[in-house]
Amino acid sequence: MGEMTHRMLAAAAAALALPTAAVAQVPAAAPVTIDPAVAKARDAALEGDTLAWEIVEELTTEVGPRLAGTEKEAQARAWAVRKLKALGFSNVRVDSFEVQVWVRGEERGEIVTPFAQPLVLTALGNSGATPPEGLTAPVVFFPTIANLQAAPAGSLRGKIAFVSHAMTRTQDGSSYGAYGTARRIGPAVAAEKGAVAVLIRSIGTDSHRMPHTGGTNFPTGMTPIPAAALSIPDAEQLERVLQRGKPVSVKLLLTPRQTGLRSSGNVIAEVPGRDPSAGTIVIGGHLDSWDLATGAIDDGAGVAITTAAAKRIMSMGRPRRTIRVVWFGSEEIGLFGGNHYALTHKGERHATVSESDFGAGRIWQFRTTLPAAAKPVLERLTVALAPLGVPLSTATANGGPDGGPLARTGVAAIDLQQDGTDYFDLHHTPDDTLDKIDKGALRQNVAAWTAMLGVVANAPETIGAADPIR
Amino acid sequence: MGEMTHRMLAAAAAALALPTAAVAQVPAAAPVTIDPAVAKARDAALEGDTLAWEIVEELTTEVGPRLAGTEKEAQARAWAVRKLKALGFSNVRVDSFEVQVWVRGEERGEIVTPFAQPLVLTALGNSGATPPEGLTAPVVFFPTIANLQAAPAGSLRGKIAFVSHAMTRTQDGSSYGAYGTARRIGPAVAAEKGAVAVLIRSIGTDSHRMPHTGGTNFPTGMTPIPAAALSIPDAEQLERVLQRGKPVSVKLLLTPRQTGLRSSGNVIAEVPGRDPSAGTIVIGGHLDSWDLATGAIDDGAGVAITTAAAKRIMSMGRPRRTIRVVWFGSEEIGLFGGNHYALTHKGERHATVSESDFGAGRIWQFRTTLPAAAKPVLERLTVALAPLGVPLSTATANGGPDGGPLARTGVAAIDLQQDGTDYFDLHHTPDDTLDKIDKGALRQNVAAWTAMLGVVANAPETIGAADPIR
């Protein structure tokens, strides 16, 4: 109940037209207060943080696109190590690992018949290549992935499968799970039924000629077929052409290739704590981006926000708990950095894990799997985040894409959830660039992360294993 | 003053806190009324016109991009003739002429040093080509075209000139005149000072990685240099990179070419009038588009709106004046269709000329050069357009890009002005597609054009030569 008083309860009861007694029977809790220094650090971030902008501006300008496992991601790591050291973080290092690297080539598409015209598309990660001269085939339309799954075996032999779908704009991004299926498994399903290539409507909510890339997967032993996402206006155009009822053929030229094993890694930096037994707080975002853009919102913003907040806590003096900032590598191509971290740091005592990887929109709610024994921490978190308009959600936290593997080992997760209403307008497109970040929203993010770290890093309570049932 | 009554004047005076007498001294004018059939046709269009959508949907879907002088523009003409005949128009024909045709090739750009990364750009019409392996050169930055013009002779030898600029969003599109200069003459100015290539910030108001193409011109005898527009985020990125103060080099690959003289033409269709001496009303838009998109707002919407309105007047019975619908050819590459029309129809008696070529946004005001003797026509126009929220502007009409040459021969122009606040977000980009058209706004356009045609086509007054001073 936080700082709610009897007088507030009476007012609430009046507003709800209930007898005061019906609400006031709740016993009055002791007021929850937070360290004034934390409130001050939070408010200072909200008012004037410039470090998050500096980080994302430098990363996107001086490195630019940084596809996992490529020389560009290596450049990003080198830049990151320099930057984190310059900011005064301790134990700055790279945890290296290897990944299979797929790189984009030429990509072109066009309707050949009945109405010749170009199509804007982009290859999906792990797409196969067409012959160097391209591939022309008739198109078979599936309104949803379910329709494709229902197609008879062998029925797509020699054909290009085109999978469309709607996609709903949601604040919490939950629609990505369902609609993303068309991209994640559509190509393999089409290949299994004999298709020579597959086109999907981009997994996105915009109406620009910006195709959304993203990874797809083919089971071991299956030869990948060429797989591309049409921009949403192009998918709608192809649907209109198909609706005319004439046979439609499309020509595709895609020349991506697998380049084999390459080096990737997580960049790690710390604000050392006073009490190793209290457990480490893991925060971060991912350093790699898709190759089509500079990855400002996915996920330059995430590494910038979390690092700027950690720096604010660092400047307040040594916290009880170590704050470990992880800039994960190779997220986009399969969560390699997050899995590597969880595997290689398994035996360590972790208190909490949190990731920022959903753009740069304002934080609108938070959720946790803090155990019941850490209830006072949750109460103080609630009080610390309230002035930013960030209430506790009833949903369960998952630690984000890269924090997820660690969270699934039982480490309590705290998710500061960003408003993703517009996120899938930009996600994985050439349009994910610095100009899309609102400085005010970025500062609100840093403020929320500062408040969270301020509360959790110095909490005297023990923060034990996660308890998803609260 | 239209239908304003003494009671309304009193109310207006009260609202302005003036004594009623101060306003009511204006003598009461005879009420201006319009033919109820025109009001009915206007309101029917507003309520339920579907023809304009049908035209722009079919043109953009079944023809797609239709660059002037190419086979695609020829396909558009063939489609147009079929469509206009099917709609019942008379004297459907093509007035042919020839144009020099420039076609786009490969186009790629990248920052080579100090921060290697790709740039999204597109060649400007009439751009020269780079060598087939591309061209790498240092970049010299000019914040505005004025700075480029002030550069010393020869100072750009071996350099790529990069011209940036701000561009203000305006409702009437007036900012295009000033800011468009960077595109129209920037490349020639840079070439004259020795530049090996030129990059401009796109002439646009969006923040998407959508470069805006458009024509540029090199004086006779000057060898065109490669000239491209960066998307606005890419222009801002290049500025940020330049601000670091290190030498910046860019690699360009552009392989456009001039293909020589090709056939183009204006498609003409008529609603024949009863009284040839009353003069023809010319309306229309342009049929050609840039090659990057399907030209939905530039200018599929224009031919669709004007034709749908003419069809509504046709269905009301034979008007006094002939309405001539012209779907101009080769507008984008130099107003060839409009100039050809004015030249070849010079001796004919024209009453008015109007074009729709500013997107598909709502009409928000109108302006004319109707002569003083046709004041009753202007008064009825004002009354007919008022219910659509379209008042008379104090500015002078120009007849639009294709109607302009005819207007400049002395034919009265009536411009129904569309709200172009968002127009330069899409103008000449790959994003000019059907999904950008709002059906409600399109119907409001057809309603306004129906009202205008209904008033002008049957006006009993003589409509003589234009009088820009009203």
Automatic annotation (TrEMBL), chains A, B:
Pfam family name, one: Peptidase_M28
Annotated compartments: Endoplasmic reticulum; Golgi apparatus; Lysosome; Secreted
Keyword Kinase: no
Main subcellular location: endoplasmic reticulum
GO biological process: proteolysis
Keyword terms of this UniProt record: Carboxypeptidase, Endoplasmic reticulum, Glycoprotein, Golgi apparatus, Hydrolase, Lysosome, Metal-binding, Metalloprotease, Protease, Secreted, Signal, Zinc, Zymogen
GO MF annotation terms: carboxypeptidase activity; metal ion binding; metallodipeptidase activity
Cellular component aspect of the GO annotation: extracellular region; lysosome
Residue stretches making up the Peptidase M28 domain: 266-449
Record field: transmembrane: none
Signal peptide segment: 1-24
Domain of life: Bacteria
InterPro entries hit by this protein: CPQ, Peptidase_M28
Subunit relationships: Homodimer. The monomeric form is inactive while the homodimer is active.
Protein name in UniProt: Carboxypeptidase Q
Species name: Sphingomonas guangdongensis
